[in-house]
Amino acid sequence: MNLREELQKRDLLYQFTSEKLFDLYDQWGEKFYCGYDPTADSLHLGHLLTIMTAVNFMKRWNTFVMLIGGATGFIGDPTGKTDARIFIDEAQLHHNQESISRQIQQFMKNLNKMTGKELKVEFVNNYDFVKNMSIFDFFTQIGKYITVNTMLTKESIKKRIEDPDLSLSFTEFSYMLLQGYDFLYLNENQDVKLQIWGSDQRGNMVTWTEMIRKKLGWEQECYVMTIPLMLDSTWKKFGKSEWNAVWLDPQRNTPYFVYQFFMNTMDVDVPMYLKAFTLMELGEIDQIITEHQSSPELRFWQQKLASYVVEMIFGHDASVQAEKISKVLFGEPLSILQTITPDEIRALWDEIWSTQMIWDNTRILDLLVNSNLASSNAEAKKLILAGSVFFNEQKITDIQKEIKKSDLISGIGLLRKGKKSYKLILWTNFQAKCTTEANSVDKN
User: Sheet of 63-68: strands edge to edge?
Assistant: First the structure.
């Protein structure tokens, strides 16, 4: 399958300026780029679409030039915005750049392990392109090649100018010039011939190819390709949870959180996500679809999707850990508790806001109240009498029940209220043992 066919079948191809680009990048050894402004210290799942498109170019031995917008990040892209962005100070911008670079380096390292391929990525910062440029250089090297007439036709500019309640600063207006210079600089100095980006930027991208040809000659090779906007079956933009963006940084949200995001994917959306967000062969995806359809209640393809994406982003251990936590909470708790490691216990502890057993014989009523599964002893008694309380998946019927050390599995237990409210119960000495082991690992 050639590049064009694969991008189409994976729904990663929307528009492009010339068929020549596919022949060129099928021959390997070329460079292409996509830019990311460091407006936060993490990328999110919405960025994964461009990254996976880049990976499909990279697996054909092309080099991904990942541009971090150290200059454009100061200003902020006005596209889709009605108000001016708040400027980010230089220290925060530098921190964000470093964080995003580390994320992508780890992402590529994980993918290299998963695929056995050496995927090549280079990092550039557009601040380096302009940091020594005077205002006169800016006007003569960038400004002279784009007309105001052209800039005023862009949707992001028109909306802000035509609405009497909105305004557009010259700073934001100049954002387009800096973006255009990115492609010009990379094309001229690093032989980057292609830019990929989302479909909402096509107008700007085509303008930048004109800028390159005006300065470097009309025969200069430069191409753009856009990726379709991905909407789920509810017409919601991909990459958003009900709480907002789903991040690629484990400090922002845990691997388990990302795992559950994909586990909650509606069946109708999974084939689209498997094609776009994995490097599985299309035949393998068809097999997964067939197996899922025989027993859809097992959510087989959601598990395959969630495990694959979490492994790409966070690594193999994080994927296994997220899968185990999911099975504890929604599938096979007792079998998992028998083999769970201290690291996995701590991860599970963090996910479900757990409690500790302070003494050996602890009343079930006290556990329910101390873990906030019940607001009072009276409510705890009602829950037990209603048959809604389980400890290690055994229904509790005795309101005088005491939990002993011998009731735990490997020093831990799972307290459940109803179908989905869980707390992890740790014997105090076991929690101390986990902490000691963790400190020992850190020192080593």
Answer: 15-16, 223-227, 192-198, 31-36, 63-68, 121-125
Give residue 61's pLDDT: 94
Q: Contact at 8 Å (CB) between 302 and 263?
A: yes
Structure tokens at 335: 């079998």
Classify 18 as helix, strand or coil.
coil
Strand segments, DSSP code E, in 82-158 are 121-125
- Which residue, chain included where needed, has tokens 């990929």? 196
DSSP state of 389: E
> Strand pairing of 31-36 and 192-198?
parallel
Q: Is the pLDDT of residue 276 over 80?
A: yes
Q: Please tell me the predicted confidence (pLDDT) of residue 189.
A: 96
Please give the structure tokens belonging to residue 150: 């052209």
Average pLDDT over residues 374-393: 93
Check residue 342 and give its pLDDT: 78
CB 55 within 8 A of CB 119: yes
Please check whether residue 368 is in contact with residue 417, taking contact to mean a CB–CB distance below 8 angstroms. Answer: yes
- Rounded to the nearest integer, the mean pLDDT of the chain is 86
Confidence of residue 81 (pLDDT cuts 50, 70, 90): low
Q: What would the pLDDT profile of 15-51 be if each residue is shown by its tens digit?
A: 999 999 999 999 989 999 999 999 899 999 989 999 9
Number of CB atoms found within 10 A of residue 115's CB? 14
**What is the DSSP annotation of 220-258?**
---EEEEEPPPB-TTSPBTTEETTEEPBSSTTTS-HHHH
Q: Cα separation of 377 and 101, whole Å? A: 51
Mean pLDDT on 406-430 = 81
Beta partners for residue 125, in sequence order: 68
Q: How far apart are CA 374 and CA 279, in angstroms?
A: 46
In whole angstroms, what is the distance from residue 390 CA to residue 414 CA?
Answer: 8
Beta strand 412-417 with 421-427: parallel, antiparallel or unpaired? antiparallel
C-alpha–C-alpha distance, residues 87 and 83, integer Å? 12
> Which residue type is seen at 183?
F
For the ranges 18-32, 64-78, 144-158, 325-339, the maximum mean pLDDT occurs at 18-32
Residue bearing tokens 């994080």: 318
For 318-368, give the DSSP string: HHHHHHHHHHHHHT-HHHHHTT--HHHHHHHHHHHT-EEE-SSSEEHHHHH
Q: Is-contact 14 199, C-beta < 8 A?
A: yes
Give the three-class secondary structure for 380.
Answer: helix
The predicted structure's pLDDT at residue 404: 86
